[in-house]
Every structure is written in C-alpha cells, then in structure tokens.
Write a structure and sequence with these properties.
By secondary structure, the protein is α/β, with parallel strands linked by helices. It is built from 17 helices and 12 strands. It folds into 2 domains: about 1-65, DNA polymerase, domain 1 (Orthogonal Bundle); about 75-374, Alpha-Beta Barrel (TIM Barrel). The structure holds S-adenosyl-L-homocysteine and iron/sulfur cluster.
Length: about 375
C-alpha cells in the first residue's frame, strides 16, 4: 500500500479554531460547532468522532469523511529504569517512525513533591542539517511532519502518559514543551508554528508560550522570522562551537550561516522578546572542549545575555565522538562561571534526556522499512 494515498485526508489535529469554524460555516453550520468539537478533542480527550455526543450525526459523518482522527499507532512505549524519561515511538500513516519523550525532573528548591514534566517533540522524520555528532542526521532527511502530526505527539502523551491536568483545569499538566526531538524545526517552520499555536491556544492544550522552547541549529532567516512573531515562545540555539572553525567542523549549517550572522539573529530575537535565550553546548572530547572555546563561548553568552546549557555528549552508535572527563567538564563550566555567565552543566540525567534526539528511531529503522514495503 502506498503511504501517500493514506495521507490524503488531513488530520483533525492540524485545524485551528478559525480554520475549523470556516470549514463548518462553509457547509452552513454554526460557528459554535467548532468550539464543541475542539472541546471534545482537547479537553475531553476523546479518540474518535463518534464519541462527540452533542455533535449531530450528520456533522460527525462529515468530519469522518473529511479528516483522519488517528494520526499514528503507538508502536513502543518505554520507561527508563530511573523513571526520568518515558519514550513514545509512533508510527505515522505512511510508516514513518517518530518519537516523543516525557522527561520528569524534580522541582529543585520548591519543596514540591510533584516533578516537572517536560514533553520533547519531533518536527521531521530524520534531519537534513547533517550535524556530525547527531543520530537524527545519520540516516538523512525523509520528510517534514505536518502540523497535525506534530500536535498528535502531544495528544499521545496526553492519552498515554497519565495526563492529570485535564479534569480539573481543562488544560494539560505539562510544565514545558521542548521542540528538541528529531528534525530541525525552523526548516519546517509553518507546520511547527501552526502546531505550537494549537498547543498554546486556550481552546487547544493551553500550554503557555513561555513554557514552549524551540531549539534550532541556527537557520538565521527563520530566527528573524520567529523574532517577528507575536507569540512569546522561547528560543534555544544549538551552538556547540564558539568559533566558526570549530562550529563548521561539526555543523555544516555554520558554513551557510556563520557566527557573524547567527549572533545578530539571536540578539534580534532576545531584544524583541525581552527574554534570555539559551545557548546549548554539547561537550565533545578534543573537538570543542578546550578552555579557549570556553572563553570564546563566555564572550558570546555575555554579548547575548544568554544562559548556557552545557551537555556532556551522549555517545551514538556508529559515531566516534566521546564526552570529556568530568574534570574537564568542570573546568569548562568554571570558566563560564568566573565570567559571570549563567551556566548549567547537565549531570547524569542528561544521558536519558539526550537519548531523545533521534536515537530511538535509528534503532527502529528496520520496522520503518518493513512498514513502507507492506
Ligand atoms: N534540530 C534542533 C532540535 C533538535 S536536536 C537543534 O539542533 O537544535 C536537540 C538538541 O540535542 C540539540 O542541541 C542537539 O545538538 C542535541 N544533540 C544531538 N545529538 C546529541 C548527542 N548525541 N548528545 C547530546 N546532545 C545531542
Ligand atoms: Fe538536525 Fe538538530 Fe541533529 Fe543537527 S542536532 S542533525 S539540526 S536534529
């Protein structure tokens, strides 16, 4: 069977309140129907059109003819022994495998028992950016996810991840959404923005924009576009090299958009949004972990008033890179701290967390091939 055929119908999860209301009005229905339908989906969390009891049968039949409800199958769900992460591997209608992850971390210093819940989502199948250290890029880029497929990851997390928010508040209990799974979100800009708009909307999942972080490898024109958006999403930049020489060696995107363009773009974003951005810096032994890199990184962070998140590299099967020793990591951190740069070094948890990036799909690529062939 051909995946394309199955994809012909749009997913109900890609509709905004406006587009759904317009489609309903075009068939002579009242606009409030859209509100009812969206309530069933995002507040009551039904999993089919049939369950929408106050929607007339004819409208439900039209919905079922016009849209697909189930965007994917859950093919694997795995909790880590440490109970820090829970991964969901979804198979899309064309067989493509997409992962999303729940990360749970204790709320430090708040005295609260409840841990913080961060949901990490993917925006593409594979990635075309080709960063040398990353599992997502290894198998190349296959396709973009559409807005409904991006939203659907959040819905599966709500359905299957024990979401407790909905009954009391009508919203989810997610503390944060991070767009740090597979793919480069700014190379799939429109679908990502549309999905995040739905995640953010009061009629959708209602996750505050400031609780949503988009991570990019540095697609400069799109960072400017994001800066101009009214929504207050947060931005993280995967820097991983504090000079063009080091950065270009591991991130091909830097040849197209070098630091002399990336830094002003980041500045544009933080100035327009009045918010600190995050610079992510994976520490890779003998690649970017010199103290000279740390000093240069401190300069960039100070110029941008950015927070630095140091992440010890998480080894990827088939790639030669390693994380530096704990001692080296601490030395690197110290240089930032001495220069008063707000910086954190991810400890053990990082291992689980970073496994989010593409590695699950890589291990399951055989399944994807089988699905495509069937
Ligand atoms: N494409 C976007 C978002 C997805 S990657 C981006 O690059 O920002 C999310 C983060 O995981 C990025 O900072 C990426 O550099 C990092 N990452 C990728 N592979 C990793 C690995 N093996 N160990 C640690 N971090 C990794
Ligand atoms: Fe793509 Fe991000 Fe991985 Fe680079 S780090 S290959 S941009 S997913």
């Amino acid at each position: 069977m051909n995946g394309k055929m199955q994809e012909a119908r749009p997913l109900i999860f890609s509709e905004t309140k406006e587009t759904l209301a317009a489609a309903l009005e075009a068939r002579g229905e009242k606009a409030f129907r859209a509100t009812q339908i969206l309530e069933w989906i995002y507040k009551k969390r039904v999993r089919s059109f049939d369950e929408m009891k106050n929607v007339p049968a004819a409208t439900r039949a039209w919905l079922a003819e016009t849209y697909d409800f189930m965007p994917a199958k859950l093919v694997a769900k795995s909790a880590q022994a440490s109970d820090v992460t829970e991964k969901f591997l979804l198979q899309m209608r064309d067989g493509a495998l997409v992962e999303c992850v729940i990360l749970r971390a204790p709320q430090e210093g708040t005295g609260e028992e409840r841990s913080r819940k961060t949901v990490c989502i993917s925006t593409q199948v594979g990635c075309a950016q080709g960063c040398k250290f990353c599992a997502s890029g290894l198998a190349g880029w296959k396709r973009n996810l559409d807005a409904g497929e991006i939203m659907a990851q959040l819905m599966f997390v709500c359905w299957e991840g024990g979401d407790k928010g909905t009954r009391e508040t009508g919203f989810t209990d997610f503390d944060n959404i991070v767009v740090m799974g597979m793919g480069e979100p700014l190379m799939n800009y429109d679908a990502t923005m549309r999905a995040l708009t739905i995640a953010n909307a009061p009629w959708g999942l209602g996750v505050g924009a400031r609780r949503i972080t988009i991570s990019t490898s540095g697609v400069v024109p799109k960072i400017h576009a994001l800066a101009a958006e009214p929504m207050q999403f947060r931005l993280a930049i995967s820097l991983h090299g504090a000079t063009d020489e080091v950065r270009s060696q591991i991130m091909p995107v830097n040849r197209k958009f070098p630091l002399a363009q990336l830094i002003p773009a980041a500045k544009d974003f933080s100035e327009k949004h009045g918010r600190m951005i995050t610079l992510e810096f994976i520490l890779i032994e003998n690649v970017n972990d010199t103290l000279e890199q740390a000093r240069k990184l401190a300069e960039i962070a100070r110029e941008l008033h950015a927070h630095v998140n140091l992440i010890p590299y998480n080894t990827v099967e088939g790639l030669p890179w390693k994380r530096p020793s704990g001692n080296r990591q601490m030395q690197f951190l110290k240089i930032l701290q001495e220069r008063r740069v707000p910086a954190t070094l991810r400890r053990e948890k990082g291992h689980d967390i970073d496994a989010a990036c593409g590695q699950l799909r890589l291990r399951n690529l055989d399944k994807e091939k089988t699905a495509n062939a069937s």
